[in-house]
Design goal:
Blueprint: E1 3-6, H1 11-19, E2 24-28, E3 34-37, E4 49-52, E5 58-62, H2 68-101, H3 105-144, H4 154-199, H5 203-206, H6 208-212
Antiparallel strand pairs: 1-3, 2-3, 2-4, 4-5
Length: 215
């Protein structure tokens, strides 16, 4: 059976037509025209479609395709839900890692001290190197005084350039280590707070000795 255009819905006719087939598709266009068929009429493809049982009851409703604007909004909503779910799973993984890695707040503070000690050692080495290169720079400046009225030897020029590069590198190492110390402290603060929340208590409840010492 093909499809026919109906100017107005006729319930009895629809029921009779549906009874003659296993199922029937029916839709109403924006202009009020009704189309039916034992397959989806071409005119229905952009509209909501009702699938009727042989007795005329509605078996299924096929939603109309989304408009470009609706599709864009749906994609944005799906992306937001995906990000929310991803964030939830990430929180759960972090929580499991916290409970697996640490048995108390004292463990967290011990890990903090160990991590900061390594960074502090890096800063101390960088400071020592900077002091050494500054002493070398002073020597180079003294050597350069002999060439105020003469061209500076290429070797001395290269030493100046190397000294500038090495000083800059060590200052970058120191600055990066200091920034990392700040980040590490913030991360351990967050881990400590979350660990206490997961344990359902205060610092005193999870680590009485540490809380008494002001950790």
């Amino acid at each position: 059976m093909g499809y026919r255009s109906w100017r107005a819905p006729v319930a009895a006719a629809l029921c009779a037509a549906a009874a003659a087939h296993a199922q029937m598709y029916i839709c109403t266009t924006g202009s009020g025209q009704m189309f039916t068929g034992d397959y989806i009429p071409a005119a229905c493809r952009n509209h909501e479609i009702r699938v009727l049982n042989p007795d005329g009851s509605v078996r299924e409703i096929i939603p109309a395709p989304l408009t470009p604007e609706q599709k864009k909004a749906q994609e944005a909503a799906d992306e937001a839900r995906r990000k929310q779910e991803e964030a939830r799973l990430q929180r759960e993984r972090r929580d499991r890692a916290l409970l697996t890695t640490y048995t108390s707040v004292a463990d967290i503070e011990a890990a903090r001290r160990q991590t900061l000690a390594g960074l502090q050692a890096t800063i101390q080495r960088a400071d020592a190197a900077i002091a050494q290169y500054q002493r070398e720079r002073k020597r180079l400046d003294e050597d350069a005084e002999f060439y105020l009225h003469h061209p500076m030897p290429a070797r001395l020029q290269e030493e100046f350039q190397d000294n500038r590069i090495l000083l800059r590198q060590q200052r970058q190492v120191r600055d990066q280590a200091q920034a990392e110390m700040q980040r590490v402290n913030q991360q351990f603060d967050a881990d400590r707070q979350r660990y206490i929340e997961l344990q359902g208590g205060s610092a005193a409840a999870t680590d009485p000795a540490g809380a008494a010492n002001g950790y």
